[in-house]
């Protein structure tokens, strides 16, 4: 019984935080099966050298040789680069990781926040169906298609209700903008409402995406689980992260029915990359989420408790949290407690 | 010389705050030309009675008899209602009010915020081209088209640079998500960058929309003017509003080359409608912005100074700002100072 874990650091600080996550998993010892790590390529830097952001070999190894994976972060080109397309977006789609689950929880900071953004992860504007045309007078007109299906909306709703049901408050807020997008967001909302019938123990509310961001800043306590189409979920999870001190502590998993990829919510942070300054917490927590998703609850809890202790102590934290500790120092502090 | 102002209170607290704005304009006396007010219909409640959310007569009177207008706020139906479509979205398009200008400024509250969201106001997902189909197995698939044109992007860029150039910091941030939407948001970004060549005195930065919301909560001081496609602008202005205490103080204008409509950024707030609790400040400030747009700078300044004084004093404020004053008490306090 071996647990095979793909590691895709990709760009920037991904190369520093994924090794930290690996160390945390290794520190678990016999709490999980014997592990095997596979180093896999992807990212913008890889694209610049090899012309592919997500090589076939990476996808194939994930599908054929891995039980799960950890993804770091990707840089985006500062102007349009022909042939480049975000590897994490491609990966989510290729492995049908339809749910992006992003718990945002405050430890030492105020206001108290304890919510989960459950983001649909395969469609909306992320289908990347875009066209560019020219009008008669030579002006450019670009179009993108936003796709919302009943199927994916119900899948993500199921996942969101399952998560909500397992939480003390059992409350779900549907995020949409159906006052403008009555058909696409209307379908999302109705699909979630239909799934709601199977979950009578969960209370359901809804909020327009613009109001939700406002409310998040003003009264974050009203939210428990939020279920959102892809782009709104992207924005909301960053907004929520701002409330708990730093994106550097917010983890996520990309989950499907057959595979799971842990991924810190932060980006590749080119400004601090390679300086041993990146916060490893988001990545370490993502590893814990990944393990819990696979059924290793005790192992996940051990990592999470260690992280919480380090954060609550607040002595050894990276610059994003106002501290001076390095990536490795924070990682070591966590490892010692696992 | 008469200034003819259309008044469209529409739904909910719109009916309380538009009269407040009217009183503020009337209090200006001879600082502006003689005014004439035209009461115009629109809104969800009007739709429920008459089957139209934006009657032809309203549009026609705006076009033929008004110099400018004030719009209140619209309620949205809680489930899809056949034939209903948001009147404010329709109005922006019908009058080609391509710029939605939303200054967000803190007075007494921390952190210090002083920024302007310049939102494209006619395209993006707001073109409302949506379709609904069924797959072979009977599942629904909804699609929406997002349109970004070089023409509209350059128009809004011109407006944003003009605004930025007139401010002390002269700094503009382009908001986009071109790491995913390389063609549509790519075109938006490139169009703004091209217009930038004509404004060498303005510094230009850019930020992905998710990071921008994060940054807005963490370091609002980095932003001066933000230019954004329609939907991102909608979300960002609500996010920014949360930083200055309440949506109830944030004004906007919908501006085109030939017409301007003042509009508070808040919604119709059905929970407090009809109770004389709504904050009239956003609406009164929107009236000032509308007047400034028409060239009545002194009149605008008089209203704005009166509002700022009331806010800084902080004695007479509505419940959204933690006070107990009524809509009319706040309005009266402002009127006295105009
Ligand atoms: C890097 C980018 C494509 C990605 C997204 O938009 O999904 C990121 O912002 C995230 O939230 O994981
Ligand atoms: C009412 C709604 C259609 C509108 C919008 O999305 O533009 C509102 O949120 C706003 O910001 O003015």
From TrEMBL, chains A, B:
Residues 4-334 form the Isopropylmalate dehydrogenase-like domain. GO terms for molecular function: homoisocitrate dehydrogenase activity; isocitrate dehydrogenase (NAD+) activity; magnesium ion binding; NAD binding. SMART domains: Iso_dh (SM01329). It holds the Pfam family Iso_dh. GO terms for biological process: isocitrate metabolic process; lysine biosynthetic process; tricarboxylic acid cycle. Its cofactor is Mg(2+). Keywords: Magnesium, Metal-binding, NAD, Oxidoreductase. InterPro entries: IsoCit/isopropylmalate_DH_CS, IsoPropMal-DH-like_dom. GO terms for cellular component: mitochondrion. Signal peptide: none annotated. Belongs to the isocitrate and isopropylmalate dehydrogenases family. PANTHER family: DECARBOXYLATING DEHYDROGENASES-ISOCITRATE, ISOPROPYLMALATE, TARTRATE, HOMOISOCITRATE DEHYDROGENASE, MITOCHONDRIAL. This is Isopropylmalate dehydrogenase-like domain-containing protein.
């Amino acid at each position: 019984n071996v647990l095979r874990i793909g590691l895709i650091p990709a760009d920037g600080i991904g190369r520093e935080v994924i090794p930290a996550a690996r160390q945390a998993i290794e520190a678990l010892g016999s709490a999980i099966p014997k592990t095997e790590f596979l180093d896999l390529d992807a990212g913008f830097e890889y694209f610049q050298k090899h012309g592919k952001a997500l090589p076939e070999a990476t996808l194939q190894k994930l599908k054929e040789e891995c039980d799960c994976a950890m993804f770091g972060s990707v840089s985006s080109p500062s102007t349009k680069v022909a042939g480049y397309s975000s590897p994490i977006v491609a990966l989510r789609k290729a492995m049908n990781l339809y749910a992006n689950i992003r718990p945002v929880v405050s430890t030492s900071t105020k206001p108290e926040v304890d919510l989960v953004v459950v983001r649909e992860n395969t469609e909306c504007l992320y289908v990347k169906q875009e066209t560019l045309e020219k009008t008669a007078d030579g002006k450019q007109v670009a179009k993108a298609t936003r796709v919302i299906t009943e199927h994916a909306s119900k899948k993500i709703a199921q996942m969101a209700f399952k998560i909500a049901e397992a939480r003390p408050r059992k409350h779900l807020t549907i995020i949409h903008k159906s006052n403008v997008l009555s058909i696409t967001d209307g379908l999302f909302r109705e699909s979630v409402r239909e799934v709601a019938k199977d979950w009578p123990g969960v209370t359901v509310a809804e909020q327009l995406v613009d109001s939700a961001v406002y409310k998040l800043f003003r009264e974050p306590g009203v939210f428990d689980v939020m279920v959102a189409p892809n782009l709104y979920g992207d924005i909301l999870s960053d907004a929520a992260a701002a409330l708990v001190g730093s994106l550097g502590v917010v983890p996520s998993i990309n989950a499907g029915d057959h595979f799971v990829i842990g991924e810190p919510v932060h980006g590749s942070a080119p400004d601090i990359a390679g300086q041993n300054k990146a916060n490893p917490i988001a990545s370490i927590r993502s590893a814990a989420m990944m393990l819990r998703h696979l059924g290793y609850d005790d192992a996940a809890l051990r990592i999470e408790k260690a992280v919480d202790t380090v954060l609550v102590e607040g002595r050894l934290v990276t610059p994003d949290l106002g501290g001076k500790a390095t990536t490795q120092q924070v990682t070591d502090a966590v490892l010692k407690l696992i």
